Amino acid sequence: MGSNELQEKDVTGAPGHDLSNGSSSNLEAARRLAKRLYHLDRFKRSDVAKHLGKNNEFSKLVAEEYLKFFDFTGMTLDCSLRSFFKAFSLIGETQERERVLIHFSSRYYQCNPNAISSQDGVHCLTCAMMLLNTDLHGHNIGKKMTCQEFVANLQGMNDGKDFPRGLLKALYNSIKNEKLEWAVDEEEKKKSHSDGTDEKDNGNQTKAVSRIGNSNNPFLDIPHDPNASVYKTGFLARKIHADTDGKKTPRGKRGWKTFYAVLKGTVLYLQKDEYKPEKALSEEDLKNAVSVHHALASKATDYEKKPNVLKLKTADWRVLLFQAQSQEEMQTWINKINCVAAVFSAPPFPAAIGSQKKFSRPLLPATTTKLSQDEQLKSHEAKLKQISTELAEHRSYPPDKKLKGKEVDDYKLKDHYLEFEKNRYEIYVGLLKEGVKELLSGGENDAPGLKKSHSSPSLNQESPVSAKVKRNVSERKDYRPETPSIKQKVT
Predict the structure, then answer these.
(1) Same-domain pairing of 165 and 227
(2) Residue 195 covered by a domain
(3) Among residues 93, 27, 162, 117, which one has the least CA distance to residue 108?
(4) How far is the CA of 251 from the CAs of 139, 240, 241, 474, in angstroms?
(5) Which domain holds residue 20?
(6) Is-contact 76 90, C-beta < 8 A?
(7) What is the predicted pLDDT for the residue at 469?
């Protein structure tokens, strides 16, 4: 593969060299690479998306030539997508995957110009199927989307018009009856049961980022990178406050438990034993892991049963409470988590399904952003401006008092979401402007006054948390997860 990378570099690296003219040498090089990718000639399935998803002219030529190996003429969109996914693994960063799906949409439209009115329409339905696949077959997603909701969410998305209802029903039933899956390399299949849980197989070699979870949409899996930086460690007591989508956690699962917490990369690992770099993570450790991408940590001001408690709200609206050793330690955890989220959270995935009539949260990818810190700041600022405008418009048209309860609840849910997102992006922007890079690069040595309390755990440290865990039985009577109908403001 090295020769191909050099070849690609030679073609794309020349200053001012315009590849858009499709010169014969560039086109031939693209065709050769595309052919080898399609036939997996000294390439793995996981290599294909990397070459098709790059943002340069040569990769676009390669993608165009690669897609020519697929003839979707007369095929339905769902069958074409399944056929496409049999050839390679859809991996990589969010933007790269998005480009691959755009190339697919372009090819499908070329083969079936009369099936759907535009290439954008094809891409919209392609992304809609991806998200529907996650909704129907993913884990811990909550209430599954109905066919009626799927159709309603796509109203007006076909260049301002509606897609044929029969087409949407057919796509919905196809995804419902058979989930979308993509090919994987044979060696990955063998590792699938131990991936991320047994690092002995990796030796001392650099391991690619693997995934925690079995989601059927790679945008949602938690990235597990054994080589990621460790930003903070220390003992924390955890209480699960709300499950995915803010739904109330069952009583038997709300109790406080003490863990040794490790904020490594964009994942907060909760381990039973103290962190050791050379020690492999157990299945239980991975099960307890929490991704902090697009998350927000704050002081749990509405919780008074224990001191030094912070609240963490995740991208999928889980809410967890953590009790730290001291107030200073709690604030350090809050700062670290929010800094990691602000610096590394990738831009939200474009909303492929959704309409003005029904509120639906966008997909927040768990992959790490490729933007520079300045670009990340601009991205957050743009998102903050958008959310603020949307919140103002939303509140300028409150629901009629005569509306049914469901419509009012939907209004409150959107208001709750927009207010939280506005607060989240305000904090992200503030942190990036203050220069969080220095705070993160300092690792655990950035706060000398706190170094002793979390770098050398001892029995004296653990006792404040563990001693209070036993007095938690009565708390369960009146402590409830946040829902828009109960509590609108998230602090």
Answers:
(1) no
(2) no
(3) 117
(4) 21, 10, 10, 11
(5) 2-177
(6) no
(7) 32
